[in-house]
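[job 4471] stage=fold_predict status=RUNNING
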Amino acid sequence: MKTLTTLLAAGLLALLAPVAWAAPIPSGKVITVCDDGEEWPPYTYYKRSLGIKTDELVGYAVEYLQRVLARKNLRFSLELIPWKRCMAMVDSGQYDMLLNASNNEERDRTFLVSMPYYALTLVYFYDTAKPKPDIRSPADLKTRQLCGVRSYNYAPFGLAANEIDTESLNQAQAFLKLKKGRCEAVPERLEIAIGYKILGVVDFDKLDIAYEAVPGLSPSPFSMMVSRHTPYAEELLAVLNEGIAEISAKDGAKDLAAKYSIPGVQLPSGALSPQ
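[job 4471] inference complete, writing structure tokens
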């Protein structure tokens, strides 16, 4: 299984390859970015004031991208829209890039994928009022009724699209299905579930839902993804990769991890993995 160290090394080697045909990014260009309208806390979400959602977008990924682009005096605009629409609009070139995504074969064909810049812990959630699913390996997930979120990528869990019910529009709906007994487990990224809980979007503890790590699975790397239809796609990818490599080689944005209360993650150069 590839570690994030391996992926970072591969990305650094890719930086050495010449890109003679890459169009330059126009001076003063504002990079257009979209991400999931359901938010992706603590990486991308709307700031709350006294518990009320504001229009300001914050998070680890937001500030990370600011640092990466600032190296080249570039700015960006960010909009949160339905995830499936975001991917389609990046694919068509209506947005230059998206901010948070795990990779799979389809996405690798569709987008230019940056080096990974963080990784998430893969767990499954279950209803404590019912017998706990006997999941001792990723293969055991395939023997269970599973609920997930529409258009999310479950390849890091070793699951094909037809092996999980992804009709839920968000995590709250997936957890509701779990409580109603329409599935036995919800595969999810732990840090995101905790982020939703902190924001008050959905609290798995109050729902008497618990979680366990999926044995045998490493943390799932997340990358930024660039539209192949943006004229300066290769140049933008190079900017992202150079910035990620530089940040990883220095402090790894530990200050951002602390600022956004990201638990148990190592961020210096090397594998991003739970401690």
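[job 4471] summary: Residues 1-20, 264-275 have pLDDT under 50 and may be disordered.
[job 4471] exit 0
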